[in-house]
Design a protein that fits this description.
α3 crosses α4, α3 packs across α5 and α4 runs parallel beside α5. The radius of gyration is 68 Å and the shape is elongated. With about 900 residues, it is α+β, with helices and mostly antiparallel strands. The strands form 16 sheets. Strands 5-6-7-8-9 form a five-stranded antiparallel beta sheet, with no helix packed on it. The chain has seven helices and 64 strands.
Amino acid sequence: MAGMTTNRMAVFRGNAAKDKIYLLNDLAEYILIKNNKASIIPKSKVPEQFKISNNLYKNRRFYNNKIYRTDNQYYSISSKHIDLYDNENKMLWQIQYDYNENQKFFIINNILYNYDGKKFIKFENGKIHPVKIDRLTGNNFSLIVNNVSQQTFFIVGGNFYMLEKKSGKFRLKLLLENYDLSKSNIVSAYYDPEDDIFYIGSSTNGLLVVKKKLFKTISGNKTDGVYYAQIPYGTNKFLATSGEVFTTDGSPANFLFKYNNDNYSLMTDRKGNIWTKENNIVYCFHKKSNFVTYNKWAFQDRVTQIFEMKEGKILVGMSVGGSPKGKIFTLEGTEDKLCFEFYMNVHFNVTYMVQTENNIIWTGSHLGFHKIYFKEKKIENIPRIQKTYVRSIYIDNSHNIWITSYDTGFYLYNQITKKTTHFPVDKNKYLLSSHCIIEDPNGFFWITSNKGLFQVFKKDLLDYANKKTKSVYYHYYDKADGFGTNEFNGGCQPCGLLLENNHVTFPSMKGIVVFDSEKIKKLLPKGNIYFEQAEVNNKYSPIINDTLFLKHDFERLRLFINSPYFGNSNNLNIETKVEGPINQKWEQLIDNNISFTTLPPGTYYLSARKMTGRNSEYQYKTLIIIISPAFYQTVWFHILLILLMITGLYYLVKMRLKYIRLKNILLEKKIAEQTSQLRNTISTLKDTTANLSKQIVDHKKLIGIITHDIKSPLRFLAMTAKHIYQNPNDPDAVSDGIKSLHTSSSQLYNFVGNILEYTKVSRQDNLSSSYCLHTLVEEKITIFSNIAFSKKIIIYNLISVSHIVNNNRLLFSIIIHNLLDNAIKNTASGKIILSSGIKENKVYFEIEDSGVGMSAELVHLYNNKKIQFRTEKDEKSGMGLQIITELLEIMKGKMKIESSAVFGTKITITFSNPKTN
């Protein structure tokens, strides 16, 4: 124990019933044992009645004795008197008594006794009384006193006794006999009456634990000591396959018969005859001859089992040539002439047979569990118990069928619901190899295995099958309880017996185990669970009120968990579970401790549980583990960190928004600039597209108009040519025709040239130059003179020869050409007058004809610049006015038309800002 300087204990004081025991070690340190924990305490905290002092008496040191009662009163034994005090240290009585240090004081039922070397005396109510102990003679004995538990023991010879008082008399109860105690240096002892365990303390050998052997093993007369099948033979006797008859008290065995057999089958029929087998031979020993005479049948194949049906029919199961298949034979004939006859084939080797109804035989085999409808010779395999070696079958009073197997544990089969339950096994999985089930009168099943014997409450198994519980408590026994070996035998029929005197027998590899099922007292693991000690980073850490506090930076935690139990350690199964920030399911506790490393901070609940053996119930104990967090793991730190993150995020977002706004302003400026450029580009593109579209439309219509306007000259040429052709001998006609051809072709040539020049310049810039307008007009009159002559039209050029204009000569020539052309076309036998001048600081040019005039609608359209290329309906005006309109747009001129059907047409063209001489 941490802090204690020596482990050598000198004196025990206290009250076990009150869970307060005080110890004084050799170095005068006080230790208090309470709640299964030992701690060093200062002397000042020890109650007066429990304080221990030592004094000198007759030149020898002795401890001032205080012996405590269960009612909080105590005896104080000093050198010359004995006193009784109450719990408030008030003396109740005092007896003068002189004694030496060799005398022993002991207490039983709160009464103080003493042995002075010759006699026993009692101190009661302030008086001394002599005491007699039955059957104790002389003084050749040793006395061991345990006043804490109020027990006193006698060592007489090689026997150990405990003093007990019944019916007002003292007697000695034998606890241990024929044991050499002379060299054991016994100094203390304690007897646990509830569990019948005797604890002996030796100064040289330590603690000795003495438990009674619960089971008895009968060795028998076989040289190898190996036994298998056995059958009852009377109330307290049973017969083995060796022919030996054993009694349950272990008396020497008698032989009933002596014949070799293979040990695996033994049966008594309804007549009392005994049946057994050896390989392929079946024997029947006759009861009427006291089993001296017998019948013998030999088979071709190996016999596996012998069974008698309820109606008395004898069956023999056998394997076929060592294969998995088998056969069943029945005994037929009269008593004088009995023989076995083949009955049916089976697909397995029979290992065990039992019968419930007259026609139903339940059979085990190497392949599983089967139901045979005997009369129908029909076999039904039980589905969930297949591909396993069935060792035995037991049918209880409720007709439940219990099946054991060699490698998969044991099962319950309900004949009515056809439900199969596969039971869990023990923690060591010894029950996977289950041999046999025997039910005792107290409702317990006894199950043998290759590794020991198990006891289980049948009700617990049924509750598990009915899903009322999830676990089953199996109580385990091994060779320490009295077996010759842990390896029991199975694969035989019968595999175990419950005799009429309630004794149970099981065969084993070393004799036959026999026990009285009524007297077996289980040593259950009923003690409390304790979290005994915590080891943190290899140092002891205290557990206070089932709570352990740890720092966040611990590296390793090791918890020691215990439950006091002096039975077989396989029966103490402690499981642990962790709940908290990290969870862990129930796991088996190994070596009584569990370890953790670097758990995150928080509160954990470490639960420990164990099965106490009472109705498969669990006992629980919980330890709270609180791991304090580091400052950076606390809630406040996380809150502060979150606030800082939110603040930082706020300013980050704010700065980002500011930056984005600035970028947006710059981007908006850039976009505005680019948008303006884009708009200009789009506008230009739209204008270009519109112009291109207009030009395409104009060109399409121009082609149509040109085609139409050329038709007249071409027709005139064709007519002139025809006239010449028809009047070749008329010189005047030929001469006039040729002249007309020349004039028309020239006109056509100039027309095409005019159109060509128009297409080149109509959409270009206005290139100005100075020229004489009279000369330009004369040139155009010359072109049309012949046509005008042929149409009897007189053309007057009233423009002054000194009139010089400054504009695009080419464009203006096209305008004059078209105006003159249109006037000639629309005039017959009339006149055309061309004039110019300056009016209101504007240059004007006029052409006036006496022709047919224009429609008011057309005049209105041209004067308002709403004219488009003419349609077929307006073809009288040709294309000239349209060309003129477009050219005037380029030259920044204006056109005014005045027309009537009576006076003809007058067209005036004016130019702003003239450059003229």
